[in-house]
C-alpha cells in the first residue's frame, strides 16, 4: 500500500463550498489545530480553456500554499466531467507541489449533475474510470475520491469501490447517502462498514457524525480508517479538541468558544479584499447555522444574533447570553 499522509483515527475538517476558503481555514487552524486535515472546496475543471496558474493558486489560497504546515495539512479538491480539461488542470495543480488531491464525486447540485460532474459520475462507471485514469497518470501524490454510495440507488456501490482501488486511488471517503437522498434521513453507517471489508485501501467515513460519542461509536462500528466532518464541524469547530483531549462540552464552554471564534473570524474577514462591513457580518452569519443548537434558549440567541446589524451588536448579545448561562 502506498504511504499516505494520514494517521489512523484522524479527524478531517470536510470541504464546504462558500465556507472553507483560506480565511476560514486560517481561523480553524489557529484556534483548533487538533483537526488532522483541512479541505478546500472544489475547483471546477473548465470545459473551455485551461485555467491560468494564478487562478488555481487563488482558489486554493496563496497564503496556504506559502505556509509549509498549512500546505501539507490541506486537501485540494477538484470537480470535473467528461471532456473537461482534466489532464491540463491536474498537471497545473501538480506544479504547486501539493501532497493530496481529492476528486469530488458527491456533489448533488442539479447544475453540476446536468454537466455530468460530481455525484452524476457514479452512474457512469466507464466514464468515471477514464477520468480516474487521467488524474492518476498526472498526479503522483495522494489521490482520494469523495463519493456518495450511488446516484439514484446503491447498485454500483461495490463496483465503484473496486474500480477506484484498481485504478490506483489511495483513499476513499464516503458520504453514506445516494445523490437522490440529498440530505434526507440519516446517513447509513453500514455502507462504510461494508466498504472497509471490501477494499484494501483506507476508507474515511462521513455523514451525520455529530458528537464525540458518535465519533467513538462510528470507529467501533465501521472500523474505518478516519472520519470526516462537515456540519458538525460547523456546529462545534472545537470538536476535534473535545475528542482528542476527552473534554466535555457544556453551555459555558460553548458560548465562550463561540464568542472567541466569531471574534477571530470577523478579524480575519478584514483581510478579504473589498469585503465591506455588511458582507463580513454575512460571512459570520453563514457559519452560525448550527452553532447555537446546544445552548439553553438557543432559538432566541440565534434570532438576536441574526437580527444584529453590526459586529459589536452581535458580540454584545452573545455576552448577555453568556452572563445568563453563567449565572
Ligand atoms: C454548505 C456545504 C457545502 C459543501 N461543499 C462541499 C464541497 O465543496 N465539496 C465536497 O466534497 N463536499 C461538500 N459538502 C458535503 C460535505 O463535505 C459532507 O460530505 C456532507 O455535508 C455530509 O457530512 P456531514 O453530515 O458531516 O455534514 C458540502 C456540505 C455543506 C453543508
What is the strand and helix layout of this fold?
Elements: E1 11-13, H1 22-31, E2 38-39, E3 43-44, H2 53-60, H3 62-66, H4 68-73, E4 74-79, H5 86-94, E5 100-105, H6 110-114, H7 125-138, E6 142-150, H8 157-166, E7 171-178, H9 189-198, E8 203-206, H10 212-222, E9 226-229, H11 231-235, H12 239-245, H13 251-269, H14 277-286, H15 298-307, H16 311-326
Parallel strand pairs: 1-9, 2-4, 3-4, 4-5, 5-6, 6-7, 7-8, 8-9
Helix pairs in contact: 1-13, 5-7, 13-14, 13-16, 15-16
This protein binds flavin mononucleotide (FMN).
Residues 14-19, 41-42, 77, 104, 106, 146, 175, 206-209, 229-232 line the site of flavin mononucleotide (FMN).
Defining traits:
nine-stranded parallel β-sheet; 327 residues; binds flavin mononucleotide; globular; TIM Barrel; single chain; 16 helices; 2 domains; alpha/beta
What does this protein structure show overall?
With about 325 residues, the protein is α/β, with parallel strands linked by helices. The chain has two domains: about 10-245, Aldolase class I (TIM Barrel), CATH 3.20.20; about 250-325. The protein is about 45% helix and about 15% strand. The protein has 16 helices and nine strands. It has helices spanning about 20-30, 55-60, 60-65, 70-75, 85-95, 110-115, 125-140, 155-165, 190-200, 210-220, 230-235, 240-245, 250-270, 275-285, 300-305, 310-325, and strands spanning about 10-15, 40, 45, 75-80, 100-105, 140-150, 170-180, 205, 225-230. Strands 1, 2, 3, 4, 5, 6, 7, 8 and 9 form a nine-stranded parallel sheet that branches. Helix 5 (about 85-95) runs parallel beside helix 7 (about 125-140) and helix 13 runs antiparallel to helix 16. Flavin mononucleotide (FMN) binds near residues 14 and 17.
Amino acid at each position: 500500500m502506498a504511504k499516505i499522509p494520514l494517521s489512523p483515527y484522524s479527524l478531517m475538517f470536510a470541504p464546504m463550498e462558500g465556507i472553507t476558503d483560506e480565511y476560514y481555514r486560517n481561523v480553524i487552524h489557529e484556534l483548533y489545530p487538533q483537526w488532522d486535515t483541512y479541505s478546500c472546496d472544489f475547483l471546477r475543471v473548465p470545459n473551455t480553456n485551461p485555467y491560468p496558474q494564478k487562478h488555481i493558486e487563488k482558489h486554493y489560497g496563496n497564503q496556504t500554499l506559502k505556509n509549509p504546515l498549512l500546505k501539507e495539512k490541506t486537501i485540494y479538491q477538484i470537480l470535473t466531467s467528461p471532456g473537461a480539461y482534466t489532464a491540463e488542470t491536474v498537471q497545473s495543480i501538480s506544479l504547486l507541489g501539493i501532497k493530496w488531491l481529492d476528486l469530488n464525486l458527491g456533489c448533488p447540485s442539479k447544475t453540476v449533475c446536468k454537466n455530468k460532474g460530481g455525484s452524476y459520475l457514479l452512474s457512469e462507471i466507464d466514464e468515471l474510470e477514464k477520468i480516474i485514469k487521467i488524474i492518476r497518470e498526472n498526479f503522483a501524490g495522494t489521490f482520494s475520491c469523495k463519493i456518495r454510495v450511488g446516484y439514484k440507488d446503491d447498485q454500483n456501490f461495490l463496483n465503484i469501490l473496486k474500480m477506484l482501488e484498481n485504478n490506483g486511488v489511495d483513499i476513499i471517503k464516503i458520504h453514506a447517502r445516494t445523490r437522490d437522498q440529498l440530505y434526507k434521513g440519516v446517513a447509513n453507517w453500514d455502507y462504510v462498514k461494508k466498504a472497509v471489508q471490501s477494499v484494501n485501501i483506507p476508507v474515511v467515513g462521513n455523514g451525520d457524525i455529530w458528537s464525540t460519542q458518535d465519533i467513538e461509536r462510528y470507529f467501533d462500528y465501521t472500523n474505518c480508517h478516519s472520519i470526516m466532518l462537515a456540519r458538525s464541524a460547523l456546529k462545534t469547530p472545537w470538536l476535534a479538541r473535545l475528542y482528542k483531549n476527552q473534554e466535555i462540552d457544556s453551555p459555558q464552554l460553548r458560548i465562550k468558544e463561540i464568542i472567541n471564534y466569531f471574534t477571530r473570524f470577523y478579524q480575519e474577514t478584514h483581510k478579504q479584499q473589498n469585503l465591506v462591513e455588511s458582507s463580513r457580518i454575512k460571512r459570520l452569519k453563514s457559519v452560525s447555522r448550527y452553532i447555537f443548537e446546544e445552548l439553553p434558549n438557543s432559538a432566541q440567541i440565534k434570532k438576536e444574533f441574526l437580527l444584529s446589524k453590526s459586529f459589536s451588536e452581535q458580540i454584545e448579545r452573545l455576552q448577555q447570553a453568556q452572563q445568563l448561562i453563567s449565572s
